[in-house]
Specification:
This protein has 19 helices and 18 strands. The chain has 494 residues and is of the alpha/beta class. The protein has an 11-stranded mixed beta sheet with strand order 1-9-18-17-16-15-14-13-10-11-12, sandwiched between helices. The structure holds ligand NPW, adenosine-5'-diphosphate and potassium ion. Pfam families: Carb_kinase (PF01256), YjeF_N (PF03853).
């Protein structure tokens, strides 16, 4: 599991750790890890550290201190290191002294912008701000970040790309774009959630000994192969198709029969023992998937299921959405609501459900439910997912460049929001969301909680798209077809 903690929590843990270490030891650990990463990158870009040209962008806090100490280490190895000080009188004094002792130079922002210093560098180290930053870059820091982006040099961000919001992943103004971010102690939300994540580039975590002082429950978590492998449903010796779980799909309409086929395609690969289909696209579903149990009588007469999926391609069929919520309410089984179903479902009915509910909006659907613009959801995904989960008292899987799964708060607080690490822009293809709804619904029917079904479904879905789209676009059906390959990779740990 990869975890991210809030700035407040990181600072509290750092205080505990620092109290037990000699003065400055923590910053030395950070700087050593940073310098090692810089040396590796210089090895690739300039051939070696000796004789390479390194520019440090140094702000007024400890983030700049990390950069200065790392620069001193590189200067000792023969790199030509120049520190550009955005606030010379506030720059970290110990770090600056170390750099001077090692033969490093200094420049003001004006000098750097008036010369070719940054353009000619092999490596730019962004130590403008870290977890102490708020808002987009201010003052002279903004043009420095712009210049670094335009230069050909590799950019390494210290702890975070400067200018992003550490706790939310928002980017409210000018911010550094890095090729690599070297972060200390733990990940932060900004390194996992777009749009900030995109500014971070690759991320390397340096262990500074913080773990024992971090609480058990992080703000965010990203499942890895081993976590998903533990959650994948597996039939036992005593299993039969009913015990493995039956998922009911109420999707598609005469106008959108394809949504039904795609949701069934996902559901057949999600671990349930059987897939029931109740809706007007039965013929299309059977033509493609004869193993589907098709019912003509609507959800109420479809037979028992352990979870329902409703909404994909539903058009304006509010009656079916209401019927599924009724039937699922009476049987007290989980429901996944997607696409049109999100608009058509009665919020009061959703809120008052006792069995789990999983809502799977994309940003546009989430924006409509929240009454805000789509751009607002895309710029602040974490807040949107959390807000929807509370308003609907439901687990929310917010799709998009970063997919998040947020559960509503319960008796013992709020579970960490899950961030899906397997997403790929290849997923942005029509009908891909329908496949995900069937897949996650199937996982719900086989007994996973809404939070696990959503996050395991998104993980498989993303991995399947990566598996299927090797150098060429793929269609939604191909994603469904590649789910068994993704499943095997996870189960075998490859
Ligand atoms: N604590 C530890 O044990 C360890 C900490 N470590 C390191 O320390 C970092 C945190 O250091 P920190 O607390 O000094 O804050 P930091 O991120 O340098 O920024 C503060 C300065 O930035 C300024 N500023 C803010 N926003 C801005 C903006 N938008 N645009 C421009 N400027 C802006 C702000 O100025 P002000 O708002 O006061 O004018 C303030 O002076 C952390 O990320 C990690 O790298 C590691 O060494 C490991 C051990
Ligand atoms: N840029 C992107 N990067 C990663 N995943 C994306 C991106 N854009 C869309 N996706 C994923 O593609 C799927 C699209 O689902 P959705 O918007 O419901 O499409 P549709 O309605 O056509 O089925 C979701 O799983 C979403 O997370
Ligand atoms: K930084």
């Amino acid at each position: 599991m990869r975890s991210a903690y809030s700035v407040e929590t990181v600072r509290a843990a750092e205080r505990e750790l620092m109290a037990r270490l000699p003065e400055g030891a923590l910053m030395q650990r950070a700087a050593a890890g940073l310098a090692a990463a810089c040396a590796q990158v210089l090895g690739r870009t300039a051939g070696r550290v000796y004789g390479s040209r390194v520019v440090l962008l140094v702000g007024s806090g400890d983030n700049g201190g990390d950069a200065l100490y790392a620069g001193a280490r590189l200067a000792k190895r023969g790199a030509g290191v120049t520190a550009v000080l955005t606030a010379p009188e506030k720059a970290h004094s110990g770090g600056l002294a170390a750099l001077r002792r090692a033969g490093g130079r200094e420049a003001t922002t004006a000098e750097a912008l008036a010369s070719r210093l940054i353009d000619a560098a092999d490596l730019v180290v962004d130590g403008i701000v870290g977890i102490g930053g708020h808002g987009g870059l201010r003052g002279s820091a903004a043009p420095l970040a712009e210049r670094a982006a335009a230069a050909g040099a590799a950019v390494i961000a210290v702890d975070l790309p400067s200018g992003v919001e550490a706790d939310t992943g928002e980017v409210r103004g000018p911010a550094v774009r890095a090729d690599l971010t070297v972060t200390f102690g733990t990940h932060k939300a900004a390194l996992l959630i777009d749009p900030a994540r995109e500014h971070a580039g690759a991320v390397r975590l340096v262990d500074i000994g913080l773990d024992p002082w971090l609480p058990e429950r992080p703000e965010l978590e990203a499942l890895q192969h081993a976590d998903v492998a533990r959650l994948l449903p597996r039939p036992g010796a005593e299993s039969d198709k009913y015990r493995r779980g039956v998922v009911g799909i109420a999707a598609g309409s005469t106008r959108y029969p394809g949504a039904a086929v795609l949701a069934v395609a996902g559901a057949l690969r999600g671990g349930a023992g059987a897939v029931r289909y109740a809706g007007p696209a039965g013929d299309a579903v059977l033509a493609r998937y004869p193993e589907t149990l098709v019912s003509d009588g609507g959800p109420r007469r479809a037979g028992r299921v352990q979870a329902w999926v409703v909404g994909p391609g539903a058009g304006d069929d509010a009656d079916t959405v209401a019927e599924v919520l009724d039937v699922a309410g009476e049987a007290d089984v989980p429901v996944l609501i997607d696409a049109d179903g999100l608009r058509l479902a009665d919020p009061d009915v959703v809120r008052s459900r006792t069995a789990p509910t999983l809502l799977t909006p994309h940003a546009g659907e989430a924006a409509a439910l929240l009454g805000v613009d789509r751009a607002e959801v895309e710029s602040a995904r974490l807040a949107a997912a959390r807000e929807l989960a509370e308003r609907y008292r439901a687990t929310v899987l917010l799709k998009g460049a970063t997919t998040l799964v947020a559960a509503p708060s319960g008796r013992d607080g709020t579970a960490p929001v899950r961030v899906n690490p397997t997403g790929t822009p290849w997923l942005a293809t029509a009908g891909s969301g329908d496949v995900l709804s069937g897949l996650a619904g199937s996982l719900l029917a086989s007994g996973l909680s809404a939070r696990d079904a959503g996050s395991v479904g998104a993980y498989l879905h993303g991995l399947a798209a990566r598996r299927g789209a090797v150098g060429a676009p793929l269609a939604a059906q191909d994603i469904a077809s590649a789910v068994p390959d993704a499943w095997r990779d996870i189960a075998s740990g490859s």
